[in-house]
Design brief:
266 residues; two-stranded parallel ribbon; 11 strands; 20% strand; alpha/beta; 9 helices; 32% helix
Length: 266
């Protein structure tokens, strides 16, 4: 028995439906923090409420945002595992409640398929890294409309997502992108090494991780326009480059080779 077999018994990359539950378990395992404290004042509802908590924006798909003035949110519940958790070891977040995470970040559990529980013009920025591909296009457009609604005039939305054009170029040209992508996921310990077949490495971006729709730049422009952003307000950006450096700095380094970066102004 190989080391990989021992670490990932029964893992079959050629069976995406069979692996769905395993990948959900993987996500739940990383949704942990040391301490979790429910905030008695509840969620901020408007700009004044956000500012009272020292918050200027929202990072979606983040259990613990790296932005000191950001509210982190995710559909998955966050678990407090440390003995310092106020409501007890092993406590879990519940929708509709605001939590202090590890004493220095804010989090609330949200479903982006539902209206956001915030007033119009509540925040200065919205950020989401590799989130939009996890929902269907109608849900994505609805969420983007909500993001635009809660942005203040002059605010910015920054989106990142796997770039379909990069995957297809790698498949057609054999430029080494797919090999690099496979090696990166292996290094991260996300299951045993993937098959090296180019067709598999393209298919996995569609069929795994709960992905529902994969975008290129034009497709992002399409959904942003449907959500109400003016075409001239949408721009293609580079890694960690944008109108707000503090928001662009939320981009993570290990995804740069596969990612398209876009911003849209309110």
């Amino acid at each position: 028995m190989t080391e990989q077999t021992e670490r990932f018994p029964g893992w079959d990359w050629d069976d995406p439906d069979g692996l769905a539950a395993r990948l959900d378990d993987f996500s739940a395992q990383v949704a942990t923090c040391d301490t979790l404290e429910a905030h008695p004042g509840g969620l901020p509802r408007d700009h004044a409420g956000f500012r009272e908590l020292g918050l200027t924006g929202i990072e979606f798909a983040a259990f613990r945002t790296a932005h000191p003035e950001g509210l982190g949110t995710d559909l998955t519940a966050l678990r407090g595992t440390g003995t310092g958790t106020v409501s007890g070891t092993g406590s879990r977040t519940e929708p509709g409640t605001l939590y202090r995470v590890d004493g220095d970040r804010w989090f609330t559990q949200l479903d982006i398929a539902e209206p956001l529980p915030f007033a119009d013009a509540s925040v200065d920025w919205v950020y989401a890294e590799h989130l939009i591909e996890h929902v269907t296009m109608p849900v994505a457009v609805g969420w983007l409309r909500e993001a635009r609604r809660v942005l203040r005039p002059g605010g910015v939305l920054r989106l990142t997502t796997p770039d379909l054009a990069r995957y297809l170029a790698g498949y057609v040209t054999g430029d080494g992108f797919l090999t690099k992508h496979r090696r990166r996921l292996t290094t991260l310990g996300f299951g045993p090494p993937m098959p090296a077949r180019p067709a598999f490495l393209v298919n996995q971006i569609f069929r795994y991780y709960g992905h529902q729709w994969i975008y290129d730049l034009d497709e992002l422009r399409h959904v942003l326009t449907l959500a109400g952003f003016a075409p001239e307000q949408i721009r293609h950006c580079a890694y960690r480059e944008g109108v707000r450096p503090d928001v662009a700095d939320l981009d993570t380094a290990f995804r740069t080779d596969e990612t398209v970066y876009v911003e849209a102004d309110r």
